[in-house]
């Protein structure tokens, strides 16, 4: 993960020196869940924030690279505990191809790599760190649309479709002892961000 972050910073520096780069800061909300699991899960809210760069190849096409702190996860209903919040904190690196459809509207599509930093399970009575129950990395595809209020401010709506299974689900034997684990569940996230260009 350190190499990814370092490479991202190097791209920032060299493209900024060439005058092709627009840097910015973004903050927003995630509506996240896990799909294709053995239980019933519902969406939960989280935050995302970080830096982004837009490298323009022409007036129409650009590359959007981001370095974000992003909270994903899901809510589950467990009896008798009630609603349980599974909070997954990631360092996310989307690298998206952008197309400027007009002065106000642009479209984005590309991969996103996520590095898990912490997973927390929380109910109304307790809170527990369960990072070991999730895979360290997650890869997905992002598709989005952005609306430019001005040259300095834009609103970004995006959907992240997870491609890798993130949960390490225990597989018990006939006596109830855990014998192995299987991967299960895919992240799915709707993001709404406000971006400020420097």
Task: Supply database-style keywords.
198 residues; mainly beta; Porin; eight-stranded antiparallel β-barrel; 10 strands
Category by helix and strand content: mainly beta
Number of strands: 10
CATH class: Mainly Beta
* Basic shape: elongated
Low-confidence runs: none
CATH architecture: Beta Barrel
Instruction: Give the fraction of residues assigned to helices.
Output: under 10%
| Terminal-residue CA separation | 26 Å
Number of domains: 1
For the biggest sheet, the summary is: 8 strands, antiparallel, barrel
Tell me, rounded to a whole number, the average pLDDT.
85
Give the strand content. Answer: over 45%
Give the strand order, joined by hyphens, for the main sheet: 1-3-4-5-6-8-9-10
Assembly category? single chain
CATH topology term: Porin
The run of helices and strands is HEEEEEEEEEE
Counted by DSSP, the helix tally is 1
Report the radius of gyration as a whole number of Å.
Answer: 19 Å
């Amino acid at each position: 993960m350190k190499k990814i972050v370092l490479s991202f910073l190097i791209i920032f520096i060299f493209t900024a020196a060439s005058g092709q780069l627009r840097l910015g800061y973004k903050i927003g909300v995630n509506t996240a869940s896990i799909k294709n699991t053995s239980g019933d899960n519902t969406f939960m809210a989280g935050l995302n924030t970080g830096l982004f760069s837009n490298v323009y190849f022409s007036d129409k096409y650009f590359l959007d690279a981001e370095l974000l702190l992003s909270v994903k996860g899901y809510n589950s209903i467990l009896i008798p505990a009630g609603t349980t919040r599974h909070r997954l904190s990631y360092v996310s690196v989307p690298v998206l191809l952008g197309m400027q459809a007009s002065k106000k509207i642009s479209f984005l599509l590309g991969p996103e790599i996520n590095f898990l930093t912490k997973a927390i399970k929380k109910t109304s009575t307790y809170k527990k760190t369960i990072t070991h129950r999730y895979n360290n990395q997650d890869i997905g595809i992002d598709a989005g649309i952005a609306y430019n209020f001005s040259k300095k401010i834009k609103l970004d709506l995006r959907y992240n479709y997870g491609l890798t299974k993130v949960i390490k689900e225990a597989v018990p034997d006939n006596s109830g002892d855990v014998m192995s684990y299987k991967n299960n569940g895919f992240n799915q996230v709707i993001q709404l961000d406000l971006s400020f260009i420097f």
